[in-house]
């Protein structure tokens, strides 16, 4: 088992649990072998002339030592398990919000031993604790930095007995294999990898480590093991799905056909009906183009598996994780910080059909590119750019983000980490935001020396660094929707309900344009508008077509076991 990487300066001692010497004492004690090992044959036969009796003193000594061992073990357990105030058992141990999302009660497909539980507890993404903003704050600033109430929801990944029984067979599959090619940016790839694992489970097949398709937009040729920790991926999922690095030689000449496009919202029944014959005859199915094809409404165990893959198994490769941790610590030491996913890249403006806010010269460039490649336009074709903006379908530009942050009470001296690609328009696009919030940095500004040079042209690795720094921030704000915003919403909930601000663009943009509203009054209205969209638990069951990765409550997070079972 690979050693857990450490956050050198800010490591929380609760983030990784290791057995105390008491456990080693019990395991090394001679008493278990005394109880369960057969008695050795005596060397001299004449000693058998009478029945063997155990002296009373020996029995007393054994019982005393056994009680002492149990007492030490009990003291250790009480030292790590909190006392609960009510009679109902919790869904997981009560970790502070600053601790890694992993829970001792995250189970493998079979009932975990204490050692497996401890290893699972250390398997999630390591996080820096939320930075204390201090006490010398205005009322608005204190409200801005305040973390949401998690309402007692914590990770809860118990699998049913039926699931665990099936796992004994599925996790050893050696004849049926699923190959999946994933495409898009990092967070699209993450979503497709999650679905690939679930589909392999549905088809009762072993999964070949997913193939990352060459990204034609960014020219990234990275392989899975360059972005993700492949051994960790295999290890965490070893009891759910067998994962192999490559196809066995017996399957290399299979007459498989590549399924390029699955229909939307496919169910487990559809997948079994479609691919069972091919899987039984050829032992191989190859899928491509999985993005958002699998239904969001799966049986409970498969929803939990989605969360296990997304929040436990998909850890970034060690060099990327370590770099992201270093940059996050550099932000942390300067004070609480905001991670801002500012969607101002050229392709975003082309796809959304919106105006850049940079003037006619820049809008003309986008219009020309949109006309030359109309297939890139994913915005609603029957709406003008004004209607799109009023409907909240356009990214907030830098000027609007600065206005929004000030209305929410963000201190202008706050550190801001800017995640995302190069904005269209360069420095000009960021100027309104930098003018009001001068402590704005990017990974390029934060990195030292040649720290980023190994990842030149590696868009997925650079996006992974953004992901790590964003996940560790006090506040995360996306200026537009998209895969990173959705994944970050769910992951921040899963690790302790870290603040996530979802802009209510249709409601607030008309206020921004109303000159009759004073700035203090505007701030009050905006804060009231967003009171229930700051990262508080939001049940997926309110809208069944929501992704459990974005809304892990209640399938993957619960208040008690009774809340789910």
TrEMBL record:
Q: How does it sit in the membrane?
A: Single-pass type II membrane protein
**What's one GO-annotated cellular component?**
cytoplasm
Kindly report the protein's main subcellular placement as a broad class.
membrane
Classification via InterPro entries: FucosylTrfase_pln, GDP-Fuc_O-FucTrfase
Task: Give yes or no: UniProt keyword Transmembrane.
Answer: yes
Keyword presence, Nucleotidyltransferase: no
Which key words tag this protein in UniProt? Answer: Carbohydrate metabolism, Fucose metabolism, Glycoprotein, Glycosyltransferase, Membrane, Signal-anchor, Transferase, Transmembrane, Transmembrane helix
Any one Pfam family match given in the protein's UniProt record, by short name: O-FucT
Chain ranges passing through the membrane: 52-78
Superkingdom of the source? Answer: Eukaryota
List the pathway annotation.
Glycan metabolism
User: GO MF annotations for this entry?
Assistant: glycosyltransferase activity
Q: Where in the cell is it found?
A: Membrane
* Gene Ontology terms describing biological process: fucose metabolic process
Q: So what family is this one in?
A: Belongs to the glycosyltransferase GT106 family.
Q: Please identify the protein, giving its name as recorded.
A: O-fucosyltransferase family protein
Provenance organism:
Linum trigynum
Organism lineage reads as: Eukaryota, Viridiplantae, Streptophyta, Embryophyta, Tracheophyta
């Amino acid at each position: 088992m690979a050693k857990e990487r450490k956050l050198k300066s800010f490591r929380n001692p609760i983030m990784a649990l290791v057995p105390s010497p008491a456990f080693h004492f019990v395991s090394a004690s001679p008493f278990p072998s005394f109880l369960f090992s057969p008695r050795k044959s005596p060397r001299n036969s004449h000693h058998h002339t009478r029945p063997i009796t155990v002296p009373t003193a020996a029995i007393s000594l054994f019982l005393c030592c056994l009680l002492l061992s149990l007492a030490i073990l009990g003291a250790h357990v009480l030292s790590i398990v909190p006392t609960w105030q009510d009679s109902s058992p919790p869904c997981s141990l009560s970790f502070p919000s600053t601790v890694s999302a992993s829970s001792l009660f995250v189970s493998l497909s079979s009932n975990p031993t204490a050692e497996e539980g401890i290893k699972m507890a250390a398997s999630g993404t390591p996080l820096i604790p939320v930075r204390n903003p201090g006490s010398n704050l205005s009322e608005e600033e204190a409200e801005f930095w305040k973390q949401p109430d998690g309402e007692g929801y914590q990770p809860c990944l118990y699998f049913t007995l039926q699931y665990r029984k099936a796992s004994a067979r599925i996790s050893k599959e050696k004849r049926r294999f699923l190959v999946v090619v994933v495409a898009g940016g990092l967070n699209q790839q993450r979503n497709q990898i999650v679905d690939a694992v679930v589909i392999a489970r549905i088809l009762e097949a072993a999964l070949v480590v997913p193939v990352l398709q060459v990204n034609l937009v960014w020219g990234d040729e990275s392989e899975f093991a360059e972005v993700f920790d492949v051994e960790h991926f295999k290890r965490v999922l070893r009891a759910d799905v067998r994962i192999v690095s490559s196809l066995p030689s017996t399957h290399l000449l299979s007459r498989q056909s590549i399924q390029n496009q699955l229909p939307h919202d496919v169910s487990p029944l559809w997948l079994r009906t479609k691919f069972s014959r091919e899987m039984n005859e050829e032992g191989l199915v190859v899928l491509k183009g999985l993005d958002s094809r699998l239904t969001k409404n799966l049986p409970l165990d498969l929803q939990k598996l989605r969360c296990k893959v997304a929040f436990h198994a998909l850890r970034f490769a060690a060099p990327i994780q370590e770099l992201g941790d270093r940059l996050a610590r550099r932000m942390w030491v300067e004070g609480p910080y905001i991670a801002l996913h500012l969607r101002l890249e050229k392709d975003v403006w082309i796809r959304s059909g919106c105006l850049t806010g940079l003037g006619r010269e820049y809008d003309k460039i986008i219009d020309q590119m949109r006309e030359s490649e109309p297939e890139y336009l994913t915005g609603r074709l029957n709406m003008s750019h004004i209607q799109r903006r009023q409907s909240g379908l356009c990214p907030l530009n830098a000027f609007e983000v600065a206005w929004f942050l000030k209305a929410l009470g963000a201190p202008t001296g706050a550190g801001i980490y800017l995640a995302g690609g190069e904005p269209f328009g360069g420095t000009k696009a960021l100027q309104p935001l930098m003018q009001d919030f001068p402590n704005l940095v990017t990974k390029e500004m934060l990195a030292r020396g040649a720290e980023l040079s190994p990842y030149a042209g590696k868009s997925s690795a650079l996006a992974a660094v953004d992901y790590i720094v964003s996940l560790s921030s006090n506040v995360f704000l996306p200026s537009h929707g998209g895969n990173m915003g959705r994944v970050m919403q769910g992951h921040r909930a899963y690790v302790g309900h870290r603040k996530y601000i979802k802009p209510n663009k249709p409601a607030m943009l008309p206020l921004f344009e109303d000159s009759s509203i004073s700035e203090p009054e505007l701030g009050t209205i905006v804060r009231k508008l967003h009171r229930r969209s700051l990262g508080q638990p939001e049940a997926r069951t309110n809208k069944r077509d929501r992704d459990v990765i974005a809304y892990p409550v209640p399938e993957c997070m619960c208040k008690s076991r009774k809340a789910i079972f």
